[in-house]
Specification:
Tachylectin-2, Chain A; mainly beta; Glyco_hydro_beta-prop_sf; Glycosyl hydrolase family 32 N-terminal domain-containing protein; 4-stranded antiparallel beta sheet
Length: about 300
């Protein structure tokens, strides 16, 4: 497996007060023909994430066809689980509705943050997304007592399946490198109420790793395939395979993409989103500084 990079696509540069910097956590939605909407997380002057989008044609991805004027999802009011930011998680289409799962940021005192997963639903292709609740749909619990991160949701038969991040520990809470953050798994009958057993979906490779983030899962005929971010010193994109979506084997050597020798993704690649179109497999991903340099596009070589 080897990905051919097609270049940087978009990076926020002050287009709106809520879109001053970053284009992190890109997630794709097919619109028509070869045109796709790419949702991403931008930041305002207070560094709070807001979800926006650009529309692109895969035949000329650097040409922005349209850009959102207002946030798709914005931070909640003071004191709510998402008052410090809303970051893009994933998008699921079901029965004519669109389900947007997002990460709500809530800054902490003894630890840097306490995050939860929220849900917004759109009634149709051009209808706005509306938060289903001021509360998260997945919050801290005995199963996930510390903090939660980015979900990926896949409808598989009559099951809604989610892979998401969960802190096992903060350490002292003073250094990010002390935390232990891995992927877990959940199931649902309706996409709103989720069952969690706390089982770890993917282990660390060695003692140098301390975090995994932003899984993207594709089901092929013979395998479930997951791409994700993992880090020791800096984020890299990893790859894993599973026969059932529950038991995973890491095969990071097959990920097929890494930092470039120069440019916007020179030291980091992270936050992948993999999708198929026109007989090709594509990957959106971020480069340096957690999306501060924007997102790019790559295509899987055959």
């Amino acid at each position: 497996m080897r990905w051919r990079k097609l270049g940087n696509v978009f990076c926020a540069a002050g287009e709106h007060p809520w879109m001053l910097t970053h284009a992190a956590n890109p997630v794709v939605e097919w619109r028509h023909g070869d045109v796709f909407r790419i949702y991403f997380s931008a930041r305002d002057a207070q560094r709070r994430a807001h979800i926006g989008y650009v529309d692109i044609d895969l035949n000329a991805p650097q040409i922005i066809l349209s850009l959102s004027d207002t946030p798709v999802i914005a931070p909640g009011e003071t004191g709510l689980f998402d008052d410090s930011g809303t970051s893009m998680g994933c998008l699921v289409h079901h029965n004519g509705k669109r389900h947007l799962y997002y990460l709500g940021w809530n800054l902490g005192v003894t630890v840097p943050w306490r995050n939860s997963i929220g849900l917004a639903v759109s009634e149709g292709a051009d209808s706005p997304f509306v938060k289903v609740s001021r509360a998260p749909i997945i919050d801290r619990s005995e199963t996930d007592p510390f903090s939660i991160s980015y979900p990926w949701v896949l409808i598989d038969g009559d099951r809604w399946r989610m892979w998401y991040g969960s802190n096992l520990s903060w350490g002292t809470g003073t250094r990010q490198e002390e935390m232990s953050h891995l992927f877990k798994y959940a199931e649902s009958d309706d996409g709103h109420t989720w069952r969690r057993d706390g089982a770890i979906a993917l282990p660390f490779k060695d003692e140098t790793e301390y975090a995994m983030s932003k899984p993207t899962v594709v089901r092929d005929a013979d395998l479930y395939r997951m791409w994700y971010s993992y880090r020791g010193n800096a984020y890299r994109i990893g790859y894993a395979e599973s026969p059932d979506g529950v038991s995973w084997t890491r095969r990071d050597e097959l990920a097929g993409i890494g930092p470039s020798e120069s440019g916007w993704d020179v030291d980091t690649v992270c936050y992948p989103c993999v999708f198929d179109h026109g007989g090709e497999r594509f990957m959106l991903y971020n480069g340096s500084r957690y999306g501060d340099t924007g997102f790019g596009l790559a295509v899987l070589e055959k």
